Fold this sequence. Notes:
This protein has 419 residues and is α+β, with helices and mostly antiparallel strands. It has helices at 97-101, 151-161, 168-173, 199-204, 282-290, 302-307, 312-315, 347-356, 359-365, 395-407, and strands at residues 3-4, 8-10, 41-43, 69-72, 103-104, 106-108, 115-118, 121-126, 132-137, 177-184, 187-192, 207-208, 238-244, 248-253, 273-277, 297-299, 322-323, 372-373. The protein folds into 3 domains: 19-273, D-Maltodextrin-Binding Protein, domain 2, CATH 3.40.190; 282-323, no CATH class; 342-417, no CATH class. It contains 10 helices and 18 strands. The strands form 6 sheets. Strands 4-15-14-13 form a 4-stranded mixed beta sheet, with no helix packed on it. A hairpin with a 2-residue loop joins strand 10 (177-184) and strand 11 (187-192).
Amino acid sequence: MLSQLPLRLLPCQFWAHWRPLGIAILCWILICPSSAGAAQGIAQYGKPKYADGFAHFDYVNPNAPRGGTLTLPNPDRRTSFDKFNPFTLRGVTAPGIGALMFESLAVGSADEVSSVYGLIAEDIKVAADQMSVTFRLRPEAQFSDGSPILADDVKHSFDTLISKLANPQYRTIYADVKQAVVVSERVIRFDFKVRNSELPLMVGGLPIFSKHWGKKADGSHTPFDKITFEHPIGSGPYVIESYRAGKSMIYKRNPNYWGNKVNVRVGFFNFDRIVYKLYSDDAVRLEAFKAGEFDALVEYRAKNWAKSYVGPKFNNGTLIKKAFPNHNGAGMQGFAMNLRRPIFQDARVRKALGYALDFEWLNRQLFYDQYSRINSYFQNSDLSANYNGETVPTAAELKLLKPLQEKYPQFVPEAVFGA
Length: 419
């Protein structure tokens, strides 16, 4: 009843030069850092993979060629936009704003589950009691208008996001953060209400913007929830070149971007311009791709993947159709039965329902053999069970399985333990 659909990508001929563009979204990482002292990286388990002073992440090409334009379609279901402010509730934000124009104090690496490294922050120090975390900001860090990023800007960003002027999700995310305290010009401390190993991570992922964003010529400020098409003052590698309201966005590389030599940014952001074109629906978008209006398209529907990406341009190699292995945590799809209801409390009933769902038939008839079974709720992660009918679990896993095998031999067969 569990299945996995691999990620589908449709790259153009120069997709190979593309590098990840977005700031890392940190909400999925949990950390329990050491209190030994300040460091660029902190990890939940043991030590971060990358030691202080590392040159770049292993998975990037530090010598990747730079230049050119990458043109992309709607990245999600939005078909228009009416603001540049991604932090307020009302309206639809232009695509790319958050990833290309704003940065956070720290970012995660793509080859670890539980480490973060300072970006705007030069180093990070978690208190011994884990009731606060302190970030020291890089002296070279600056906003797109050339002004330095100071602790006052970080506090302003935090205080604004937890106010009623911003999307309520931020008040939920930072509910256990007591306050942001300006220690000095470039040192900011966050105090916590409770001891929670996730909190240093959560404030590390805080998006930072200038306290001058929304400031008018007369010195007054536009209320944060009224900021719409005022150009953001962030610290990201791109700025807005031009736009057609609701139709397209064109970003250009900021020639004065401060972070080009920062190790967590080396190898990223290699295009001079990034263009987003928005289409009214999936069918129009697909035909636009076939006509060469943009460079790459991600497909999530098995039927579309099997039936729609065909024709002369695919046959002659003008358009390249390719499936990439999904190395991220895959998650699961299935039915969860409410065991509080008597009808589901009999394991035989649950097993019968499992047999009633003919996965192989569904996969063949409805999903064009694009799905594959998974053998863990944590597929493609370090937490995934190792046993797949061919390999033997680790010694630590066997230690946990043995008592279960003795109690439930029908569910933990002897074969799991090897010959």
